[in-house]
Amino acid sequence: MALSEIIRMALSSLGVHKLRSFLTMAGITIGVFSVIGVMTTVSALRSSIESGLSFLGSDVFQFSKWPTGVQITGNNRDKYRKRRNISFAQAQRYRQLMEGTTDVIRMVAWQGGGTAVYGLHHTTPNVQYGGTNEYYLQTNQWSIETGRNFTGDDVDLGRPVVIIGQTLVRLLFPSESPLGKTIKVADHAYTVIGTFAAKGTLFGNDQDEIAVVPISRFLSDNGADNFTLNVATESPSQLNYNATVDQAVNAMRLARGLRPGEENDFDLYSNDSLIATFAKIADTVSAGAFVISAIALLAAGVGIMNIMLVSVTERTKEIGIRKSIGARKQNILTQFLLESLVLSLAGGVVGILLGVMAGDGLAVMLKAAIIFPWGWTLAALAVCSAIGIGFGLYPAIQAAALDPIEALRYE
Fold this sequence. Notes:
Blueprint: H1 3-16, H2 18-53, E1 60-64, H3 77-81, H4 88-97, E2 105-114, E3 116-118, E4 121-122, E5 127-132, H5 136-140, E6 144-147, H6 152-157, E7 161-164, H7 166-172, E8 182-185, E9 188-196, E10 201-202, E11 205-206, E12 210-214, H8 215-222, E13 230-234, H9 241-256, E14 267-270, H10 271-314, H11 316-324, H12 329-365, H13 374-400, H14 404-409
Parallel strand pairs: 5-12, 7-9
Antiparallel strand pairs: 1-13, 1-14, 2-5, 2-13, 3-4, 3-8, 6-9, 7-12, 8-9, 10-11
């Protein structure tokens, strides 16, 4: 028999029991959908998040009271809560100790949110309101659209000045320049000296809904004891990065008044550590999806074998007739393998399409890039092919091995 004729007969046989074929495919579809959906989402978010997490420069590291990449629950929650805040005085002392190594040391403190008001215009209560110094732009990859950055004098003298993001410009100053105007942020009055260039959204949050003032002014307006500072340091070069980190850790210990042998009561992180943290989370999610999908696909494979065994029993007389008029074992084996393979691949293709649409749909909602996971798609097709052949082989052998005389007598 020609291969085309065998394929035609295989497809015709599957079409006779459409509902049964659909339900058999559904098991494969669910397994492939789960893994492709998760992998599409993770892959789409990975590139977006990795670029978003790179808010520190490549040579920048940061000290903070709270750790990153650590689950702050259970036994370790009190440990981190009991840490002393990194105070402005400690940050200033750290900066003095690092003189001669680097001058680029950024300090920042944030308040949960606030409303900005100018005349009759106001923003949502979600403005990122914080204090920083003149190195915020350099260490956080921001730039000035109009006006100027903070100066050392602004910080030393605690001047009531502010730099605002483009969302605040749009909401508060729809028809005039904001420079030189006095606005209120969280009920404190500041003069606008500059505006940030637009940054867009990150993880669904508006980065342009921001207002920063000199760190000294921020702490005096809101109470220095209520805040812990994050202190970022830029190494003079990548070659000196590790040496700068070592020196910075010692300087921070001295600024914090830690004695030799005492554990650090602060954490250090960089772009690499943030990205590595997300990679661990993504890998864990991927592994979980893979395990769930493997179980689903195994169950689906057993379902295919069961259905094909039932099909062999139902078509025993048909097989006997075909063998009596010249069909060979190889023809019967090929037809049943093709039926099993078509069921598995059809379910896999539907699962891939649904998974990609679901994954990219979620990525769009989170404002991440849309991708097509070619690697995982090819892997899914290969696995589906293996399932179709592996679980369909035994029923196909059973069909091919039927004795034509006994098969013709079967009722």
